[in-house]
Amino acid sequence: MDTSPKTVLARTAEIAIDWLETLEQRPAGATADVAELRARLGGLLPRDGVDPVTVVEELARAAEPGLVAIPSGRYFGFVIGGGLPAAVAADWLTSVWDQCPALYACGPAATVAEEVAGAWLGQLLGLPPHASFAFVSGCQMAHLTCLAAARHHVLHAVGWDVEERGLNGAPPIRVLVGERRHASVDRGLRWLGVGQASLTVVPADGSARMDVTRLRAALADGDGPAIVCAQAGEINTGAFDDLDAIADVTAEAGAWLHVDGAFGLWAAAAPRFRHLVHGVQRADSWAFDAHKWLNVPYDSGMAYCAHPDSHHAAMSVTADYLIQGGPGQPREPMDWTPAFSRRARGFAVYAALRSLGRQGVADMVERACDHARSFAEGLAAVPGCQVLNDVVINQVLFRFEDDETTDSVLRRVVGGGEVWLSGTTFDGHRAIRLSVSNWQTTDRDIARALDAFREAASHAGAGRGGVLPGE
């Protein structure tokens, strides 16, 4: 049994390279169902150990039919990016180095890489230079981090120490959210003790943006601590709230403004699309993902806060055994994130930013938006297809004559394996949404997607039944 790291990792690299180099020929979606995957991967835990190379080879063979070609340019689902070569390589090193950036003492290089990459990201996206930040697993935990800071800040302003006293007896916090918000905002608030029944939902206008006039009225219809959650990039349409106008309203009301910028905040990195986030730097906190448009491997999210003291108060922790601080005043990541033990995500983000540079990020964002627009223009010529949104960024929302036809077309396209994308419900009707977020997507990939929809539309009504992606 050869258990040497060199042998195991060399064979693993061969398997990984083969996967990446054959993505063009692979189906975009999985080809095995859950029963087959359980049969291939399951069974009793073996009594004796198995040679590591054999384990890796058999795992790859068993898992392959259940793998989705997310790294390919033909994957258009859920606003998921791929993996830039430098970011993937750095992520492999992250696993080999096995650093824990909870504390500087556990991983000095990992914590400094986060410090540098966090500053670079703030510069790239035009966030205030004094803003604090945290590397987290994704936008869900970024919301939790930012909204915990918001909760501390607005309660502290009225004399309540939530970290010491909890929420029992605290002044009620009004949280105002947009009608088209992402579900992760509600989920993060729920974990912080703010249930859905406590939310004030501000209606959206016809373009899925928060109605600023209604927001102003809602804020005026009450007093006390308040948090407003705005959105840069609605998940179906890509629409952007008027962040500058919302910042005016929240400033007048003395409310905290949090921005869900999961993928849309990356518009700030691209000169052609920067106007979409005009005023975003006036917010109090921002949450977004690096595993979307920056194309680093999962999982990688970011939380930024314009009030470092509130951020630190909400997240910091001490214990007798923790080694914190020291010569040079190192940044202690544990004071800014909700996690003790976690992956050293800063290495991959650092590598992605260095490999692209400011111009490379801008080009990647603008290229994806151009592809989305080309796809929408091509759809306009497909019989029975209706594009439902103004394509302002990388999201295309469309449907066919009725719900049944829409679902049938989507099922046929996904079943054909050329591309993968998901269904949704919008304004009470079934629809399909395409997200272009992968650095590898080309004009040919868009052409293949259009061909798949033309062919499926010509057979509309056939093959109905079964489970749709996105459900």
From TrEMBL:
<dbReference type="InterPro" id="IPR002129">
    <property type="entry name" value="PyrdxlP-dep_de-COase"/>
</dbReference>
<keyword id="KW-0808">Transferase</keyword>
<dbReference type="InterPro" id="IPR015422">
    <property type="entry name" value="PyrdxlP-dep_Trfase_small"/>
</dbReference>
<comment type="similarity">
    <text>Belongs to the group II decarboxylase family.</text>
</comment>
<dbReference type="GO" id="GO:0008483">
    <property type="term" value="F:transaminase activity"/>
</dbReference>
<keyword id="KW-0032">Aminotransferase</keyword>
<dbReference type="InterPro" id="IPR010977">
    <property type="entry name" value="Aromatic_deC"/>
</dbReference>
<dbReference type="Pfam" id="PF00282">
    <property type="entry name" value="Pyridoxal_deC"/>
</dbReference>
<protein>
    <submittedName>
        <fullName>Aminotransferase class V-fold PLP-dependent enzyme</fullName>
    </submittedName>
</protein>
<dbReference type="InterPro" id="IPR015421">
    <property type="entry name" value="PyrdxlP-dep_Trfase_major"/>
</dbReference>
<keyword id="KW-0456">Lyase</keyword>
<keyword id="KW-0210">Decarboxylase</keyword>
<keyword id="KW-0663">Pyridoxal phosphate</keyword>
<dbReference type="InterPro" id="IPR015424">
    <property type="entry name" value="PyrdxlP-dep_Trfase"/>
</dbReference>
